[in-house]
Design a protein that fits this description.
9 helices, 10% strand
Length: 223
């Protein structure tokens, strides 16, 4: 298997054996497909291993904890920004808080994200939290084997779009949010608001002019 040039950061819960096993499965699925990965539980700093060493060197307990927490934070931020993609494991009744921060950093730095989820406990009235799912264009996979192919498809699509790439997803989302905010501030009615939302995000825009009444044209949502 040839090695892929795209490095993937694995974000998710890792505080009990079941969670660590799940994250290991995610990493292995990517490595088998040729992707280099950073798995924090395996490749990062081990708090429990280094804390006793700092204490032996007469570093006060509180200071030692601060040193290690700062080091872990900085190391993870480096690997997120050094990666081309991030896979977010959303499983759990409440998605892991640290993984949410990592995913937000990755998205703001325009990294390619894939969400893995096969646990319904975090559903909000039958749906995933839009602030999280929106990081991956409202798409997720539920099988380990689907993760590498999802990245391949997303990387391929971004490569095809690169010559016409104008703004980052962060900038695009900010601009869309600004338009929505202006619409709300002008006290538009629900019809006007939904017209704007369809223009911004709808897959189809229905024409209402006399010449095109009843017909629809394709509108591409932001990626």
């Amino acid at each position: 298997m040839s090695k892929c040039p795209y490095k993937i950061y694995c974000a998710g819960p890792l505080f009990n054996p079941k969670e660590r096993e799940e994250m290991e499965h995610i990493a292995v699925s990517l490595e088998r497909a040729g992707y280099p990965v950073f798995l924090p539980q395996r490749d990062g700093l081990e708090f429990s291993r280094l804390l006793p060493v700092l204490l032996q060197r007469n570093v006060p307990t509180e200071d030692a904890a601060k040193i290690l927490n700062n080091a872990i934070f900085c190391l993870d931020v480096f690997h997120i920004t050094d990666s081309q993609g991030l896979v977010l494991n959303m499983n759990g009744r409440v998605p892991d808080e640290g993984a949410m921060v990592e995913a937000g950093i990755a998205w703001a730095h325009d990294k390619t994200l894939v969400i893995f989820k096969n646990d319904d406990r975090s559903l909000l009235e039958g749906n995933c939290n839009p602030m999280v799912l929106g990081l991956s264009n409202f798409e997720f996979v539920s099988e380990y084997e689907e993760i590498p192919s999802a990245f391949s498809a997303k990387f391929s699509k971004r490569a095809d779009e690169f010559p016409n790439f104008q703004t980052s997803r962060f900038e695009a989302a900010t601009q869309n949010g600004k338009e929505i905010s202006s619409c709300l501030a002008s006290e538009k009615d629900a019809r006007d608001i939904t017209d704007l939302l369809i223009d911004l995000f709808g897959e189809r825009k229905c024409q209402t002019s006399s010449e095109t009444k009843g017909s629809c044209s394709q509108v591409n949502p932001p990626q």
